[in-house]
Design goal:
The protein has about 190 residues and is α/β, with parallel strands linked by helices. Helix content is about 15%, strand content about 25%. It has helices at about 5-10, 35-45, 105-115; strands at about 15-20, 25-30, 50-60, 65-75, 80-85, 90-95, 115-120. The longest helix has 12 residues, at about 105-115.
């Protein structure tokens, strides 16, 4: 029943503006005001049963951030993708944590890497980078080399042993056994 595309499109018609089909997977483009309602519908509909949020990420487009939700119906073995454009003027989207608990860390990562804020998120803070990090590294305007005054990564570590790491010279390492037939080939360019 789920693979009946006509029925599937009919059930979701109130939610999407546009859709596409790529390799049998449907991709729906929604307005951000319909995200939570659509996610809830997909999860709770007795025929669809999209009960797993597999991924939530962002892509930067010319007019804003495109938030992407990938859902999986474990019972029906079917995937669906939802996309919504969040304009740069208002980088705020509704949190999906009320529908899918798994959205918690995905949304924190989108906030950390892209600067996208989520309303009603239970704990919206950085997840990958230190709290004092400036900027959002996956945005296109972020400098390729980073900012010059950023502390090195070891400055954030608590372990004092990091300054006393052994030399990582591969050729003199015990990783390569000189008596083995597996010799390291050095290619000069």
């Amino acid at each position: 029943m789920l693979h009946n595309k006509t029925l599937f499109l009919k059930k979701l018609k109130p939610f999407f503006d546009h859709y596409a089909e790529i390799r049998g997977q449907l991709i729906f483009v929604l307005d951000r005001s319909k995200i939570l309602e659509c996610l809830s519908f997909l999860k709770n509909d007795k025929d669809l049963k999209f009960n797993m949020l597999h991924d939530l990420t962002c892509n930067q487009k010319s007019k804003g951030l495109e938030i992407v939700y990938q859902l999986h119906s474990v019972d029906n073995s079917y995937w669906i993708t939802l996309k919504s454009l969040i304009p740069f003027e208002s980088l705020v989207a509704p949190s999906a944590t009320s529908v899918f608990v798994a959205a918690d860390w995905h949304e924190r990562e989108a906030f950390d890497m892209f600067g996208l804020k989520f309303t009603d998120h239970p704990d919206l803070r950085r997840i990958l980078l230190p709290d004092d990090w400036e900027g959002h590294p996956l945005k296109k305007e972020y400098p390729l080399g980073g900012f010059k005054d950023i502390k090195p990564i070891w400055a954030y570590e608590e372990a004092e042993d990091l300054q006393n790491l052994p030399d990582r010279n591969l050729l003199n390492s015990s990783i390569i056994d000189p008596d083995s037939d597996d010799k390291l080939k050095v290619i000069e360019s």
